[in-house]
Amino acid sequence: MGDADFGKWSEFDKWHLLFDELCNRSGDYDNAALGSRYCSLMGRRGEAHFETAVRNLRNWRAGRHIPRQRNFMFLSQLLDVASDTALSTRWNELYLKAREAEGRAELADDLPEAADAGDTLVAANATAPAARRFDGRRLAMAVAIFCCGVLASELYRAEPWRWTYSVEKLPLIVLRPHVSLMVGESLVIHGERGDCGKPPPDWEYVLTRLPISRIGSFSDGGIVRRNSNFCRGETPARAVTFTAQKPGVEELLVLGDVMRVTVTGPSS
Predict the structure, then answer these.
(1) What's the CA gap between 214 and 196, in Å, rounded?
(2) Number of domains in the chain
(3) Residue 193 DSSP SS3
């Protein structure tokens, strides 16, 4: 995919149609090979993960759902979208429009964790020896106890006692799709959340997900709070601060969101 395709990408008006076309161009017609590479890139192994990935790919290509931001970044990497500037621009624009249209991007695709749990139970029942028969009520009780244990563990890891009194004291940030600064100015433009209610990731991790800007730089803005559709409310986040360094206009994909940054020189 090179500059020769510059004028072709404008023909696509929906993200899933462009995604399907890129899959076909790469030879991924049945989702199997792409699903395998997708799982490998995510570090997921096992048949349940693979089946979930293939199901997600099928739904994304058909336009039934759109991927969450993290999965969108993986797809961009797998299809080497960044190698073509025109393609990258159109890819990001259509994804942003799809997110706005659906209004619940972070809940759009299947969750591998939930699917894996169900697939594991199905696989266990399918391979159990015919001679072994379980009492339905005992099995249901065992599953309920197991789920309660998992839930209790997650609640403990979330440290709700820590955030219930501190989250409200953190500064609240909002997404800034259009930013205007003068050279030397700094502004918080985004925030990377962790799991709902849990501490956000370290800056070293967030930095690996940020683009390289030719007119400015990114830095750690500290712990803040932001609204999340997935968390259905406010949750802690790691603030991303942009510092303007030279005049210019640039479109950047920041943590899955397309942002337009304008930097002007010092006023006379």
Answers:
(1) 33
(2) 3
(3) strand
